[in-house]
Design a protein that fits this description.
Elements lengths: L5 H13 L1 H6 L4 H16 L5 H22 L8 H5 L1 H4 L10 H5 L2 H5 L17 H11 L4 H8 L5 E2 L4 E2 L9
Antiparallel strand pairs: 1-2
Length: 174
């Protein structure tokens, strides 16, 4: 197997970055995508790489970047030389799926992060008190089946004065 040169890695990264939208629009036809990158690398640098080798090399670059992130945050035990070399470039996460209209309509905080604080931020000691538990339960509460049904099919209003059901539903008078 041929070793990758810096020039070949540069072409691989540049092509993947510049064609990110195309990559995510392909669905599952990634083989032709990686093959076109292999053809470009082979045409410009000589050795023969195939689609699989290009895909694997890029996956390994992302893995090395993630290893560097873990090392820098104290979670990893070893740093990656390759991850360090390309760290600044990969910290933009250019390979991820670009935002669509739905993503842009959400506030930034709701796109990738939960608004529920971690348990550790609710209390400073190791045990949670009742108010902490109530705060967590209140934030994580979901509607029951009955609540969802009633919100979609509200019951008719009951008129106490006439002791009869009214046709007024949610304030819509007839």
């Amino acid at each position: 197997m041929a070793e990758w040169t810096d020039a070949q890695i540069r072409i691989l990264i540049d092509e993947r970055r510049n064609r990110n939208d195309e990559f995510h629009d392909l669905g599952r036809d990634w083989k032709s995508f990686w093959n076109s990158i292999a053809v470009k690398i082979n045409r410009e640098t000589g050795p023969t790489f195939n689609d699989y080798q290009c895909k694997e090399k890029f996956s390994n670059l992302v893995r090395d970047y993630n290893a560097m992130c873990n090392f820098m945050s104290g979670k990893g035990k070893a740093r990656s030389r390759t991850g360090a070399r390309y760290f600044d470039e990969f910290c933009t996460h250019f390979w991820e799926r670009p935002e669509d209209e739905f993503d842009r309509s959400l506030p930034v905080r709701q796109r990738h992060f939960s608004t529920i604080p971690p348990v550790s931020s609710l209390t400073t000691n190791d045990e949670m008190d009742i108010s902490d538990t109530e705060q967590l339960v209140g934030q994580r509460r979901t509607s029951t089946h009955e609540e969802l049904f009633l919100s979609l099919h509200p019951p008719p209003s009951y008129d106490i004065a006439t002791a009869q059901e009214s046709s007024n539903v949610r304030g819509n008078m007839q």
